[in-house]
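We emphasize that the prediction below concerns an isolated chain of 154 residues; any contacts that depend on oligomerization or on bound cofactors are therefore not represented. The input was used exactly as deposited, without trimming of termini.
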Amino acid sequence: MNQEISLVATLPATPRGARAARALTASQLLEHQLPFADAAQVVAELAANAVTHGRVPGRGFRLRLRTGPGPTLRIEVSDTRAEAVPRCEPSVPDAGAECGRGLLLVSALASRWGTDRGPVPLKTVWAELDFGNPLSPDRGSHDPVDRVPVTHDT
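Result of the prediction step, given as a token string:
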């Protein structure tokens, strides 16, 4: 991969903001003709966690996507609840639980993931996806934004 991607966006800590983060990710990777399905799913999970567990009224969350000259995409989602840090080893929820599977998905799709604190009051949950990983193939080149419309806050 010879192209570099750098995207930083501050989004509202709402379900619409989380959907917009996923759509931005898919659109950015699709524009560069890179596989986007796994990255969009990881962003969806991390953004949903930021909205659900990291929300502070009046403050949004930040999405950052970066690639370098290598085949790795780094995804970072930052919020202002540094005290609400996810466990490094996600646990399997009870069969009837309605939530608790997001970080299991991130762990399954990402090559690496973790959490960084700071500067105060920020917490950043990050994940890295290797485009060359045979477990994460390109699942096609259709545009998911055409299938799932994203409405914008007015």
